[in-house]
Amino acid sequence: MAHNFNTNTKNDPQWLTPPALLKALGPFDLDPCAPINRPWPMAIKHYTILDDGLNQPWEGRVWLNPPYGKEVFIWLEKMATHQGGGIALIFARTETIGFHKTVWAKAHSVYFLRGRLSFYFVTGEKAGPANAPSCLVSYSEADTAKLATLESGFPGKLIKVMG
User: Fold this and answer.
1) Residue 111 and residue 128: Cα distance in Å, rounded?
2) pTM (2 decimals)?
């Protein structure tokens, strides 16, 4: 499910956020994990693997669909300290040490999506459902308010962690 690969086939492990979800939550100023080739914009500004988005300055409201795997929590650490707000889309691995350190201890809220989200290939074609449940993580009160509006189009449950 990682964003950071440069192929454009169905074998690409890079799955994109459904455009309807981006529309419901946006607009975003920055996507620091954008694919090099993308069928639609995730934000106004994009960093790709060529830019090393983790080590670039983040400004404004961030959309974060980070590379999945152990490194996801490195990205969430940066998101937790980013002052411009934003929302991260990750697997709901609530039992992991990383989730406890970067979500339960630092997030403002978590929106647990009901069922499994269907992502998209970099070609723009819809892929199958994810192999794990997903959640949306907010680190600001304003983004929590945005998550609270999702229920009609993306059923789930919002849990306020802080605030």
Assistant:
1) 21
2) 0.90
Rounded to 5 degrees, what are φ and ψ at 112?
-90, 115
Calpha distance 157→163 (Å, rounded): 17
The DSSP code sequence of 6-26 is: ---STT-S--BPPHHHHHHH-
Percentage of the chain exceeding pLDDT 90:
84
Q: Which residues make Cβ contacts (< 8 Å) with residue 137, sequence separation at least 6?
A: 76, 79, 87, 88, 89, 90, 103, 107, 109, 110, 111
One-letter identity of residue 86? G
Q: How many residues does the chain have?
A: 163
Helix (H) or strand (E) holding 158: strand 156-160
Which domains, from first to last, does the chain contain? 19-160 (3.40.50)
ω into residue 27 within 30 of 0, thus cis? yes
Per-residue pLDDT reduced to its tens digit, 130-148: 989 999 999 999 999 999 9
The span from the CA of 46 to the CA of 41, in Å, is 8
